[in-house]
Amino acid sequence: MTRSIRLDAVLVQAVIAGALSFAHLHDLAEAAGQTGWKAWAYPVSVDLLLVAVWRRLRTDRSKLAWFWFLVALTASLGANVATAGLLDLEHVPDWLRILVAGWPALAFLGGTLLAHQPADRAPAQEPATQPVPVVDRPEMPEPAPEITTPEPAPALPEAAHPPVPPALVDHARKVATDHRTRTGTDIDTATLRARLGIPEDLAGAIAAQLA
Hints:
By secondary structure, the protein is an all-alpha fold. The chain has helices at 2-31, 37-57, 63-86, 94-116, 166-183, 189-196, 200-210.
């Protein structure tokens, strides 16, 4: 709730200050010979230029932006000070009439330059670093790789097959024949072992005899 009251106070203050500045600019333009709608257009021109330059300064703090900010601020403050009783609005000096009459062209020039000047500038290029001189050194010959003669692999002992009873061989041959009849392929060791229910080494010995 406190934040809302503070925000409203700021807005009211901004509206009052803007209205007073608008009125002072209008009175000064009217006193300088700009009557009718032209007197109302002068405060709009000054305030819009001031707002445009301020928005530009948020992204671009170049000398050109600061120059037009000072120009718009001087025009706004000058009108407020001039209408504070320091200037006789019934007898405005000629130099002030010239400034007021030339303000539209000046404001148009400032707005055009600010609108067409790119805000993003390329970063300054860093000075190129001098290359470090490379001293040529004689290349040392690489040592020849040692050739090693591979050692012969040790001979694997022949697997000894357990003795197979002839009756079991005959039964296995029948199983293999039945498998070939049904599938059209020779029976492998794993299938033979599963069909006969025998150990793996014994199935391998029988498969060797059936081959």
